[in-house]
Amino acid sequence: MRWSQAFIPTLREVPAEAEAASHRLLLRAGYVRQVSAGIYAHLMLARRSLLKIMQIIREEMNAIGGQEFYLPSLNPAELWRESGRWDAVDVIFKLKDRAGHDLCLGITHEEEMTNIARGELRSYKQLPQIWYQIQSKYRDEPRPKSGLLRLREFFMKDSYSFDLDEAGLDVSYDKHVQAYTNTFKRCGVRALFVEAFSGMMGGSVSGEFTAPTEAGEDFIAISECGYSANLEKAVSGLAPVEDPVGNESPETIATPGQKTIEDLVRFTGERPERMIKTLVYVVESEPVVILMRGDHALSETKLSAALGTAVFRPATPEEAFKLHHAHLGSLGPVGLASTGHAKVRILADKALEGRRDMTTGANQDDMHLRHVTPGRDFQAEYRDLRAVAEGDPCIKCGKPLELVKAVELGHVFKLGRRYSKAMHANVLDAAGKEVEIVMGSYGIGVERILTAAVEQNHDKDGMFLPKSIAPFQVILTAANMDDAPLREAGEGLYKQMLAEGVEVLFDDRDERPGVKFKDADLIGVPYRLTLGRRKFEQGQAEILVRSTKQVQDVSLERAVQALKQHLLS
Ligand SMILES: [Zn+2]
Question: For 302-330, how does the pLDDT look when each residue is reduced to its tens digit (9 = 90+)?
Fold first, then answer.
């Protein structure tokens, strides 16, 4: 392609609204333009790069026996009502047709794929199956962010495996982990495979491929020993806390105006790890009391797993008052059953199990209780509800955990029978008995690969995409197009590269060399072949490796071969 005829609207200024490096650079390099919050137009450079990413994904999916489908984005509500997700998932784009029928734009396709499976798969002999598609997905994101990370319309590769039993699912799952590992490697993106939480997908086991980068919105906990997990799922060890023997009975102490744990630490001189923090949530319209150690944070994701539902919210101060007969800041678990809510559910974080003689709210305004011993003074269900913090000891090796920001690139789920049960997708097994199909579901965010690649491969002048996903492999720059011999040599090299299958962008614009070099540094092409007057007179051209900015002189005759060697390396 000739730059003089290409649409590459580079920007000199850094767009003010763009925070992440990838967002700034993709705008500046003329890859994308924003249409609306979370909705982007892909221009020529982005499209070329994304098509390459999709092709790598396709090849790796085909290599594990995946069969490519294409399902519609527009889907009937009935299927989603059958699975129970129509009301449960709040980020679906829902619409009505002119006859008043409910429809949605696909955010994922478990229901539609299961619907095909149940109509067509009859026998265990037809299993296993892996069906995938690369397709636009829609998400009614409550907080669409600028940039290509939290989008309302985006490309996904989603695949679904159908097996007779768990052993089969294990094989399909492992195949996907391998395909994803290969995909990210071939795309030149550094990715970690971590344990993750299944969220709205349901199912028990899931893993996440995540790219460490500053622009990430997720945190992963990593340890020297190789332990790594999404923060939502991460667990850590705890240093033991020394409690008093705890023979004394609970005793009320006046704590006027002391509401937060920090207030209480100052007021009582007691350490926060000796306190019980009381939170009230409303879970499907019932109050649930959550207890955490004073210095620990609640993980709402772990809470969701413990509750078995994502439908919950923090109680309003009025709702908490109704339950405890005290205002926020004086709430506690002791005596809750006697205040008329005999059945109120109390969940306590595991860090409170076996503790003694602690301090917590007294359920009277401006009062707290000390000498409170869990198990003796109140009963609770103990669950892991604690969000891991930086520096907590690793459960495997005991060394401090590090929390790093990361972008989720892909997710693999063992769904089990969640959808086949709800939607009656059965096959006959070898004994002729009807059994539910065991499913897996697997996704890759296509734009996220590009975003992560930019985040991991840029400097102050622009980006240098991995050669496998860069929109072009080489920029050919004739420094001065007014210079007839130079221009002719450029035209000759351009034709030679096209003939030899090199994907080349020929900068034949009538611009100053400085402008051309700046643009070439910006737009993410990994190699530049430059024809400048001085070296040209000696029969030489210059190859610049954009990632290292290393320069190599080559003879004009050998230039294309030398480039091809770089591209193959
Ligand atoms: Zn470790």
Answer: 898 888 887 899 999 999 999 899 998 89
C-alpha of residue 306 to centroid of ligand 1, in Å: 25
Amino acid at 46: A
Which residue range is the domain that position 333 belongs to?
251-383
In the reported structure, the alpha carbon of residue 400 is separated from the centroid of ligand 1 by a whole-number distance in angstroms of: 8
- Ligand 1 centre to CA of 339 (Å) is 45
Residue 146 has pLDDT above 70, yes or no: no
Tell me how far the alpha carbon of residue 394 lies from the centroid of ligand 1, in angstroms: 5
| CA–centroid distance, residue 138 to ligand 1 (Å) | 38
- d(CA 494, ligand 1 centre) in Å: 53
Residue 98 in tokens: 């002119």
SS3 84: coil
**Final residue of a structural domain among 335, 355, 383:** 383
Report d(CA 378, CA 352) in Å as an integer.
Answer: 12
Q: How far is the CA of 382 from the centre of ligand 1 (A)?
A: 25
| Cα 192 to ligand 1 centre (Å) | 15
Q: 336 in the Ramachandran plot: left (φ > 0), alpha (ψ -120 to 50) or beta?
A: alpha
Q: Write out the H or E segment, with its range, that includes residue 28.
A: helix 21-28
Whether 198 has a pLDDT exceeding 70, the answer reads no
531 vs 511: CA distance, rounded Å: 14
Instruction: Measure 205 CA to ligand 1 centroid, in angstroms.
Output: 21
Q: What percent of the chain has pLDDT over 70?
A: 97
CA distance 344 to 340: 9
39/155 same-domain check:
yes
Phi and psi angles of residue 364, each rounded to the nearest 5 degrees, phi first: -135, 135
pLDDT tier, 341 (very low <50, low <70, confident <90, very high otherwise): low
Which residue from 345, 373, 348 is spatially nearest to 358, judged by alpha carbons?
Answer: 373
Q: How far is residue 418 from each of residues 110, 114, 442, measured CA to CA in Å?
A: 10, 11, 15
Using CA atoms, how far apart are residues 310 and 302, in angstroms rounded to an integer? 10
Q: How far is the CA of 227 from the centre of ligand 1 (A)?
A: 5
Report pTM: 0.81
pLDDT-derived band at 234 (thresholds 50, 70, 90) equals confident
Instruction: Say how many Å lie between the CA of residue 398 and the centre of ligand 1.
Output: 6
What is the CATH number for 130? Answer: 3.30.930.10
Residues near 419 by Cβ (< 8 Å), separated by ≥ 6? 83, 110, 111, 114, 202, 425, 439
- SS3 category, 313: strand
Nearest to 270 by CA among 258, 282, 257, 285: 258
Compute, in angstroms, the gap from residue 396 CA to the centroid of ligand 1.
5
Separation of 223 CA from ligand 1 center, angstroms?
4
Residues 172 and 198 in one domain: yes
